[in-house]
């Protein structure tokens, strides 16, 4: 008698709780930054769970983690399902973890039912999706999709750590995982993720079928002035980069988003050197995250950031240098894979809508090498990258059920 694979909701919710304890913060979030001890702890736990089920465990040269369940025809390229385990410094317990653990739950459901799929299915935890400790983000999926990583090894993290060293230590922390070269042929990719925005909750929909992801760019603005004594330097003699930085941020915050509701402009990090209370800074560096669904608008917003920073630096007799650390063009997902997801949603008779993602995801890079699509579930108040991030247990389980149905369909095409 063939059993029908079913998501075990209690098991999934228990897993989410167990992983939320790794890097747990006092306010109920997680701090599991890429390649940290906490990230390694989560990877280790997932690898141990996989071994208990008899799944094969692999990792590649940038520490992407793969868990494989064979299909009837082992020669076929695997379907990948998954997300990421790394988090923001004050992240939520569902961003990334929901998609990774739901993918693992789908593999267990297939195993419990001894169900066969034509293709192998592999669960993947992509390395460094967040990019907050080591920019750029989506490093693991970018590398898997063909980006040359050689230059990354020397990147210094926000905490001064060396990326190459951290990657090696992370790989070494899972010696039992088989080592794989970067990249391989896959048949497709499906990722479950929280929306990280308010629309599904506002429309009381349990599922979003993601058709595309908007473009993202990360800039680093460095304004150089002249350090000086806070007490003795009169206004006329100051070349204060903080004054220039604040004026530039203020101008950009009063134009970019107020004049274009689809634009996103965020300054997430500001640092002054030497950072002394009684010294006019020598330099001020701040980060800029810009997003837009239209490529030409993204281009125009970056040009405006460059123009305004140069003008405000000049007004203070300072100089501005602007580097781009991340350029992630938006993309549409494969209509065939979106259709598979949509059919899975309909087979479960779930109300849903198509949606464009405001956040970037690993799926954006997988879409460059295989048919990819995403499934969203609502999160409370659309909150994410915040320790109060929350998903209704029922929505987490529904999302996993859609992922399982879509994976079964994608791994055993009729
Ligand atoms: O920043 C992003 O869009 C992703 O959530 N890391
Ligand atoms: Mn994420
Ligand atoms: Mn995130």
Helix content: 25-40%
Cα shape: elongated
Number of helices: 11
- Overall radius of gyration: 23 Å
Question: Architecture of the largest domain in CATH?
Answer: 3-Layer(aba) Sandwich
Number of domains: 2
Query: Could you tell me the mean pLDDT?
Result: 97
Classify the secondary structure makeup into a structural class.
alpha/beta
**How many β-strand stretches?**
17
The CATH homologous superfamily of the largest domain is named Zn peptidases
Top CATH class of the largest domain: Alpha Beta
CATH domain fold name of the largest domain: Aminopeptidase
Distance between the termini: 21 Å
Largest sheet: 10 strands, mixed
Please tag this protein with its features.
alpha/beta, Aminopeptidase, Alpha-Beta Plaits, 2 domains, five-stranded antiparallel beta sheet, 17 strands, binds (2S)-amino(hydroxy)ethanoic acid, binds manganese (II) ion
In words, what does this structure look like?
By secondary structure, the protein is an alpha/beta fold. It has eleven helices and 17 strands. The protein folds into two domains: 9-213 and 330-411, Aminopeptidase, CATH 3.40.630.10; 215-328, 2-Layer Sandwich (Alpha-Beta Plaits). Strands 1, 2, 3, 4, 5, 6, 7, 15, 16 and 17 form a ten-stranded mixed sheet that branches. It is elongated. The structure holds (2S)-amino(hydroxy)ethanoic acid and manganese (II) ion (MN) (2 copies). Residues 129-130, 137, 359-360 line the site of (2S)-amino(hydroxy)ethanoic acid (HGY).
Summarize the structure in short.
The protein is an alpha/beta fold. It has eleven helices and 17 strands.
């Amino acid at each position: 008698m063939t059993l029908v694979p079913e998501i075990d909701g209690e098991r999934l919710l228990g897993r989410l709780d167990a992983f939320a304890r790794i890097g747990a913060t006092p306010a109920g979030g997680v701090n599991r930054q890429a390649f940290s001890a906490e990230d390694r702890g989560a990877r280790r736990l997932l690898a141990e769970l996989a071994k208990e089920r008899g799944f094969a465990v692999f990792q590649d040269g940038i520490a992407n983690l793969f868990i494989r369940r064979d299909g009837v025809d082992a020669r076929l390229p695997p379907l990948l399902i998954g997300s990421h385990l790394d988090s923001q410094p004050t992240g939520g317990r569902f961003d990334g973890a929901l998609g990774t653990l739901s993918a693992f739950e789908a593999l267990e459901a297939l195993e419990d039912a001894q169900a066969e799929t034509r293709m192998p299915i592999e669960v993947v935890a992509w390395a460094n999706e967040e990019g907050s400790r080591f920019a750029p983000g989506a490093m693991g999926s970018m590398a898997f999709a063909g980006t040359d990583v050689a230059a990354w090894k020397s990147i210094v993290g926000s905490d001064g750590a060396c990326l190459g060293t951290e990657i090696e230590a992370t790989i070494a922390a899972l010696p039992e995982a088989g080592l794989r070269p970067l990249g391989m042929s896959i048949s497709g990719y499906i990722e479950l993720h929280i929306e990280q925005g308010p629309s599904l909750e506002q429309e009381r929909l349990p599922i979003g079928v993601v058709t595309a992801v908007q473009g993202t760019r990360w800039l680093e603005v460095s304004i150089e002035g002249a350090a000086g004594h806070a007490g003795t330097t009169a206004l006329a003699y100051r070349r204060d980069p903080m004054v220039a930085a604040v004026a530039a941020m203020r101008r950009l915050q009063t134009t970019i988003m107020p004049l274009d509701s689809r634009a996103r402009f965020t300054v997430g990090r500001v640092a002054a050197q030497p950072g002394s209370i009684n010294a006019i800074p020598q330099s001020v560096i701040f980060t800029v995250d810009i997003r837009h669904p239209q490529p030409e608008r993204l281009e125009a917003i970056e040009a405006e950031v460059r123009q305004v920073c140069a003008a405000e630096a000049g007004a203070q007799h300072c100089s501005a240098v602007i580097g781009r650390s991340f350029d992630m063009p938006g993309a549409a997902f494969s209509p065939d894979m979106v259709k598979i997801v949509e059919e899975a949603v309909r087979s479960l008779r779930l109300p849903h809508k198509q949606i464009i993602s405001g956040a970037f995801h690993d799926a954006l890079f997988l879409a460059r090498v295989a048919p990819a699509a995403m499934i969203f579930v609502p999160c409370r108040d659309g909150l994410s990258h915040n320790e109060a991030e929350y998903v209704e247990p029922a929505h987490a389980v529904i999302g996993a059920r859609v992922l399982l149905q879509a994976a079964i369909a994608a791994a055993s095409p009729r």
